[in-house]
Amino acid sequence: MKKSLLRPAVVLPVLAVLIVVIAAATYWFEPWKLVVNKTVDEAAPTVSAQVSGQKVEPVVVAQGDFISHEHETTGKVQLLRLPDGEQVLRIIDLDTSNGPLLKVWLTDAPVIEGSDGWRVFDDGRHEDLGELKGNKGSSNYPIPADADISGLNSVTIWCDRFHVSFGAATLT
Questions:
Q1: How many angstroms separate the first and last alpha carbons of the chain?
Q2: Which among 8, 35, 78, 106 could disulfide-bond with 90, CB atoms 3.0 to 4.6 Å apart, if both were Cys?
């Protein structure tokens, strides 16, 4: 007599393992982010100061355009110096995919087109400016006063979970 594989002693443990695997994959991959966008619309920093009786506005120290890496990415980035000496990285009109653990990094890595450039940004020095505020729109990322950003000449939207760049820009 042939025993059935559909008996409770087999089915229940298999279902339990399947539920654990699905829950872990859902937590790890965050698949809902494939269809959910987060849009931000922060104004550019407007801090100005009076120096010798003249109004001084923020200065663009460096700027660049995003190129696509793992995900289609467009937009611009500016490194701004405010009159009080504070520095801010401004991302303008970003359009990229949403994803798990996306970060904004200033790095010393070269921006390389194609898949060869996807994983280079954690090889050298970088300054983590925090989580990406939104995968669409414009946002500001203050640079800590004690951060040494000399030699950091590129920006990446970095997926910290999968160690891959969604897109990057060279600052010139």
A1: 77
A2: 78
Q: What is the mean pLDDT of residues 37-53?
A: 81
CATH of the domain at 139: 2.60.40.200
**What is the residue whose two structure tokens read 């190129």?**
67
Token code pair at residue 159? 């997926």
Residue 43, in any domain of the structure: yes
Measured between alpha carbons, how far is residue 93 from residues 17, 28, 42, 74, 171 in Å? 44, 28, 11, 8, 16
With tokens 């970060």, the residue in question is 103
Q: Is the pTM of this model over 0.85?
A: no
Sheet with 59-65, side-by-side order of all strands: 39-41, 136-143, 87-95, 74-81, 59-65
* DSSP 8-state class, residue 100: T
Q: What percent of the chain has pLDDT over 90?
A: 69
